[in-house]
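Incident log, structure service

09:12 report received: a user says their structure output differs between two submissions of the same chain.
09:20 pulled the input from the user's history:
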Amino acid sequence: MDKLAKGPPDPVQQKLRSDKKAWSLEVKKFVDDIFAIKDVFNGRPSKFHTEKSSIKDPIPGDPANILSMMAAKFQEIVQNGNNIVQKQIDYSKNRRKKQPKQPKQMMPAVTPNLPASPASVELPTNPPDLSKQLGASRFYNLMSTASAKMESGYVFIDNNIFPTLLAISTEEQAKGLMDESWPPPVMSFVYAKPTVNKFWMSNTVSPLDIIFCCDGRVSQICKGNPLSTSVIGEDKLSDLVIEFPRGTVESSDIRIGQKVGLVKPTVDELKIIIAKKSR
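09:34 re-ran on a clean worker, output below:
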């Protein structure tokens, strides 16, 4: 049987893909610059200063100006990420609108199978790549009203950057992502000291990737199935647990042993973060 010919490429989808690719390159360059300025603070050669330096001398290469430029670049990346998130939300809504009924016409003897109606659409198997959605709608439009009062920040895993809600209080950690529709936001559960943490998916309707971390490294990667009451997590210590929409681990190539960090980088906070890492 001959295959049906594909329709013309969707220009809106092509533009989204192009914007995401360009955005990813921006993020990668920004992350590379963070490590480069960290090397400067630590006296090692980098793109900002090509020679070694001593702790007895001032930090070379005008670091204050570099940090200010990086902070401005970070805000630009956030804004571009917001724009991409909103464009994809609008595109998704428009694609799922019911088309008006057409007048009945004579049908040919053989017709191709029509796609399922919007009513039968299930949760997507390929979630959005959150590393390409840095900071959606000042903390992104995917947040629910219930989570609007939570603290928010950014989590770095290897070369990926994700906007995240911070579950810090006992109440926030108990609620987690319960009742959040697809796609849920990223949520980071922050603990004062390493402890054995266990999770379950009771009242959680979206499938999740759950990452357990300790001492700045990914230590466990688990999956959470909607509404399951099975206990998730090994008998290992963790001081940070991050919940992602299912599929993020695969699409972002997250692996055990990768570096993890939480930040809220204003200019002053960037200085503190980089200074601490250079000690």
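09:41 both user submissions now match this output. Likely a transient worker issue. Closing.
09:42 reviewer note: The two ends are 67 Å apart (CA to CA). DSSP finds five helices and seven strands in the chain.
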